[in-house]
Design goal:
binds 1,3-dihydroxyacetonephosphate; about 250 residues; 11 helices; alpha/beta; TIM Barrel; single chain; eight-stranded parallel β-barrel; 8 strands
Length: about 250
């Protein structure tokens, strides 16, 4: 259960990463819309850029939120290959994943850049889902708390507690992503509890777990007091594997 008195609605976000053509993306949205999703959970999907507009049209009249997987911090300019916040807003994007470990690893996204993007997303009225987490070797060396503290402090630098509270953080241990190995629910909760205390405002923010979260482990993760939802990769690519996670979030939050 969440902390007594807390009003943190569960949030389940599907990060489709570099998967799905427009046709496949629309097909999945039709499948999700055919399911009865519990009204007490915020459900969000993050298709690749090419499918965002078609998915927005497919989602019309639905409560499922639209999320981008990254964005540039500037509003426009000479940044070949990048997508600006106003372009996302124009399509109806409400959430944006920032600082995913794959972007930090393959695209050189730094803590400072994540901070600039977080402030930019808020300026444009989007909810940042800031991803943090440690590598396998950092985990083994006991550096997890140090690493995530540094990452969240950089992401939220210069923001007031109210703005911070409106953001979402996803704790994704890098060694758990796509590996089938997930962090033990109690250990994940302990890290997330630490994150909650690391920056003013995060005590009221929604904090998610990510990394091989599936129907089989969602109930145990969601039952933890500090875990408000999940950022789901592989299991978000089909309604049959995604919807049971949403149901578990509803039943165990
Ligand atoms: P998996 O659920 O495939 O482990 O991916 C997690 C993730 O990186 C979500 O952003």
């Amino acid at each position: 259960m969440n902390q007594p008195g807390a009003v943190r609605r569960p949030l389940i976000a599907g990060n489709w990463k570099m998967n799905k053509t427009i046709a496949q993306a629309c097909e999945l949205i039709r499948e999700l819309r055919a399911c009865t999703l519990p009204a007490g959970v915020d459900v969000v999907v993050a298709p690749p850029f090419t499918a965002l507009q078609a998915v927005a049209a497919e989602l019309r009249g639905s409560s499922i939120g639209l999320c981008a997987q990254t964005m540039h911090e500037n509003d426009h300019g000479a940044y070949t290959g990048e997508i600006a916040p106003p372009m996302l807003r124009e399509i109806g994007v409400r959430y944006v994943i920032l600082g995913h470990s794959e972007r930090r690893a393959y695209d050189g996204e730094t803590d400072e850049a994540v901070g600039r993007k977080t402030r930019s997303a808020l300026r444009h009225g989007m909810t940042p889902i800031v991803a943090v987490g440690e590598t396998a070797s950092e985990h083994e060396e006991g550096l997890t708390l140090e690493k995530v503290t540094m990452q969240v402090r950089a992401a939220f630098a210069g923001l007031g507690a109210r703005e911070v509270a409106s953001c979402v953080v996803a704790y994704e241990p890098i060694w758990a992503i796509g590996s089938g190995h997930f962090e033990e629910p109690e250990s994940a909760d302990a890290v997330i509890a630490h994150i909650r205390r690391a920056v003013d405002g995060l005590e009221d923010a929604r904090l998610l777990y990510g990394g091989s979260m599936k129907a089989q482990n969602a109930a145990a993760l969601m039952a933890q007091p500090n875990i408000d939802g999940g950022l789901i990769g592989g299991a978000s690519l089909a309604a049959a594997t995604f919807v049971p996670i949403v149901e578990a979030a509803y039943a165990h939050a």
